[in-house]
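Sanity check

After download, print the first record. It should look like this:
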Amino acid sequence: MKENTDNTITNNDGANEAALKSSASSGHIKNIARLLTVLIVFGVILVFLDRILLLKSKDGIEQMKAYYRQPEGTVDALFVGSSHIFCHVNTGLLWDEYGISGFDLAAAEQPFWNSYHYIVEGLKTQTPGVVVLDITTPGVRPTDYQPENWLITNTYGIRHNKNRIDAIKISALKDSFKRLLVPFNSMHARYAELSELDFADYDDTARFKGFDARETVVSFEMPDISGVTERGELTEKEITYLRKTIEYVQGKGIPLLLMSSPYVVTPEEQAKFNTIFDIADEYGVPYIDFNLLYDEMGLDFETDIAEILHLNRAGNEKFTRYFGQYLKDNYNLSDHRGDPKYSSWDEEALFQRQDTLSFNIRNAALEGANGKYLDLLNNSNLVIFCSVAPGFTGLSDPSLIQYLESLGLKEDMINDIGAFVLNSGKCIYESHSYDFRIGFEDGNRRLLFVRNTEEDGPMHTMVRTNGSIGYQEITDYENHEMSWDNGISFFVYDTVLDRTVGGYTIQ
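Expected structure tokens:
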């Protein structure tokens, strides 16, 4: 009896012990599950914050982000290097005139080691017919370590992978590598400066091809480096990565072209470029020195230069036309115009055309070129708001009527308080009242064309714009007051650029 009792007790202890082990195991699994859940949530938050806090910069970060959005196998000409690439190679014009699907995968003041890592990243998803490497930075910024702001724009656009780590490691001083490896160490201070654009698709699209034009005009004397035969000294690091880049691209079986882009070059800089060309000759790599081809391109150093290092819009168009023809003549680059797979290049070309038009419209207004201004408005992608001042007695230059009629505004429609909305050569709204209000919608953007008379005060005519950008809705209207002189005031909105071009009054 006693023995049976002992056995019963022993068996119960074993069952209890097994239950305790099972409970502990279950609790352990739950703890692991909780930990994994926390880690996953934390990881999602980090990815979200990384996207929001990452510097929105067209000095390299946005170029790389947009590159990932390109359909695989569609980039036929890959342009890599410094801002001389994304300021000079007009990808929209290349497409419009030659059907070349090019991409400016470049970053500000990019040294050869970052160009190498950009090419490594770029060839993961594309097999271009030619890789063009810009060689400017060793001439104008002879240093083995960039300032951190340029290091960031040259590396933080790359996805989190080994190539990114290697790019940061070779770019950073030893003491700062670990700190720069974690973006939050550099970006956390951006909390205070976040705007709606940080939550938007800021050119992170398949449409954007990396091009970012400069618009200023500064006059320079044309440099002459035709007699420079000296060889300048490069650092060991520059030489190592130039050779490494050449060997990597050649190993992929892809044609490589080195390019010295046109700018106000000095003899000292040209001497370094000569050394680079010598190295290219060792490998049988072709190169083109555009600083010896100013006349062939038709560059005018009084009108085509933005500042000492970059071409402006007029300059980059001349350069791109010449370069595009060279690429078509020397490389097997197909014309993809009309192919639906390349529709994003159509979108980019249209955007660039409208962007150039916007620039020209603003310049015509500044110059007071009334006829030129009105002629430029004859574009189907523009919505034109017109307001006629009280007491209007006619235009001082009757020849301007022909331009107005081409926009859809007939002479007999114009009176001293007329208000009109024009688009595609037609008048889509007309009012002859002191007070009116008309809405125009384009996608997320809403524009209100309004005139109201304040009691015992002046009459105001304005265009109000609002809409939504990304995740953050803009609830306040932005007022654009139209001039109330004795004439016809214009205010222009571009439906492709989704922005206002500005106002102007003719008399």
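If your output differs, re-run the checksum step. Summary of this record's structure: The chain has three domains: 27-54, 57-355, 368-506.
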